[in-house]
Amino acid sequence: MGIITTKDLNLYYGDKQAINSINMDIEKNRITALIGPSGCGKTTFLKTLNRMNDTIPNCKITGEVIFDGINIYDNKIDPMLVRKKMGMVFQKPNPFPMSIYDNIAYAPKYHGKKKRELDEIVEKSLKAAALWEEVKDRLKKSALSLSGGQQQRLCIARTIALNPEVILMDEATSALDPISTYKIEDLMGELKKTYTVVIVTHNMQQASRIADRTAFFLLGDLVEYDTTENIFVNPRNQKTLDYVSGHFG
């Protein structure tokens, strides 16, 4: 069993079923990529992993998501605690309109951390996101003054500040230039030494470069899930072969 295991996981928006009976083990300290055409359910699936779909009206989820041995959809589980352990980085960088320092310190301060602890958390998180050397002399400057790539790494640092076990990334490089994308990909390789990383990407070259395992989604179904090499070189399913070879999608 992986750090996250889904069992017969289904999600409905009203009468429309968006993901269909997904059974999947996500391995610890690995990068898992979710690929597939637009509307195939990969982002919806990603957001079920830390209960981010809970607030959507008429959204119904059945099945289980087991994280650290506990079903996170048990009624006794606080979704906020789940999201603290499984942080999300979104497609478009979304720094808070405040200083670089306060972006990182905001959540730990809310959870009761004091100034000395906050200083340590900010430095550690920025170093983990490979941003410390670039911003250490301007921590009181607005986060909005950073470049797009720096802002995205700041958002990763902000996620790290809460000491998660899992980092979920929803197309985290699609709005970035190639150089910034390379830096984020390089960073992911470092992050998996400490965290489990799950990414949604439309960029199949990116998945093939950085992912240890890849899952191919189509029309809400998990068509195939295997090592990245097998998915791209020797897929078992014809639909997977058609997609990764560019015949559709």
Number of helices: 10
Structural domain tally: 1
Helix content: 25-40%
**Kindly state the mean pLDDT as a whole number?**
94
Backbone shape: globular
- The end-to-end distance, rounded to whole angstroms, is 31 Å
Biggest sheet details: 6 strands, mixed
Strand order of the largest sheet: 6-7-8-3-9-10
CATH homology superfamily name: P-loop containing nucleotide triphosphate hydrolases
- Total E-strand runs: 10
Q: What is the alpha-carbon Rg in Å?
A: 18 Å
What does this structure look like?
It comes from Anaerocolumna xylanovorans DSM 12503. The protein has 10 helices and 10 strands. With 249 residues, it is α/β, with parallel strands linked by helices. The chain has one domain: Rossmann fold, CATH 3.40.50.300. The protein has a 6-stranded mixed β-sheet with strand order 6-7-8-3-9-10, sandwiched between helices. A 4-stranded antiparallel β-sheet has the order 2-1-4-5, covered by helices on one side. It is globular. 41% of the residues are buried. The model has no long low-confidence stretch (mean pLDDT 94).
Quick recap of the structure?
Pfam families: ABC_tran. One of its GO terms (biological process) is phosphate ion transmembrane transport. A six-stranded mixed β-sheet has the order 6-7-8-3-9-10, sandwiched between helices. The protein has a four-stranded antiparallel β-sheet with strand order 2-1-4-5, covered by helices on one side.
